[in-house]
Amino acid sequence: MAIAIITGSGTHSLPGFAQDETEALDTPYGPTSVTRGRFAGVDALHVSRHGAGHVRLSNHVTHRANIWGLKQLGATAVIACTACGAVDPSLELGSLVVFDDLHFPSNRLPDGSLCTFFVEPGDALRGHWILHGGPFSEEVRKALLAGAAAAGHAARDGGVYGHVDGPRFNTPTEIAQLAA
């Protein structure tokens, strides 16, 4: 299984990523850069959402190009990290949360397009997302939790990632809505 890691703010390079080689790819959704290398002793792929020096704000991230490029290079699982706020006051600053649910009300990317690869009517691969089992891979979640435990790092099993469009921060009303 080829593992892909997508990092966000503050992590344009992945500490411990060795034998890395960056490859520029053209995708149907624009260009992207994917770095191949080894991480923790296994072959891995890495994408920096914001790029070196944080050149892309959240509304400039090419999500579909990034995912397409990872798939093109053989990724079968993606682990993404994000540095985000929390509305749960019991969650300590810097805590690791392995999400099990998602709140993404607009289902649109920053450019306004739908968050899907299947935009053509009649496409045989199109369909509704059925997320009753959760939007995240249970096998990957279990591996992340086990890895955190083995490293002696506390991790919360479960939480809702509440997506909001940037680059602006949330208003107090939006934060209250997310908390509800």
Write up what this structure looks like.
With 180 residues, this protein is α/β, with parallel strands linked by helices. It has 2 domains: 83 residues, no CATH class; 95 residues, Rossmann fold. The protein is built from 3 helices and 9 strands, in the order ββββαβββαββα. It is globular, with a radius of gyration of 17 Å. The chain starts with a strand and ends with a helix. The model has no long low-confidence stretch (mean pLDDT 88).
Strand order of the largest sheet: 2-3-4-1-5
Strand content: 25-35%
* CATH fold descriptor of the largest domain: Rossmann fold
Helix content: 10-25%
Number of domains: 2
Spatial extent as radius of gyration: 17 Å
Total helical elements = 3
CATH superfamily of the largest domain: Nucleoside phosphorylase domain
CATH architecture assignment of the largest domain: 3-Layer(aba) Sandwich
Number of strands: 9
Helix/strand-derived category reads alpha/beta
From the N-terminal CA to the C-terminal CA, the straight-line distance is 38 Å
Gross geometry: globular
**Low-confidence regions:** none
CATH class of the largest domain, please? Alpha Beta
Q: What's the helix-strand series?
A: EEEEHEEEHEEH
Describe the main β-sheet briefly: 5 strands, mixed
**What's the rounded overall pLDDT mean?**
88
Quick summary of this structure?
The chain has 180 residues and is α/β, with parallel strands linked by helices.
Helix and strand arrangement:
Elements lengths: L1 E6 L10 E10 L2 E10 L2 E7 L14 H10 L2 E6 L15 E3 L2 E3 L34 H13 L4 E3 L2 E3 L9 H8 L1
Parallel strand pairs: 1-4, 1-5, 6-8, 7-9
Antiparallel strand pairs: 2-3, 3-4
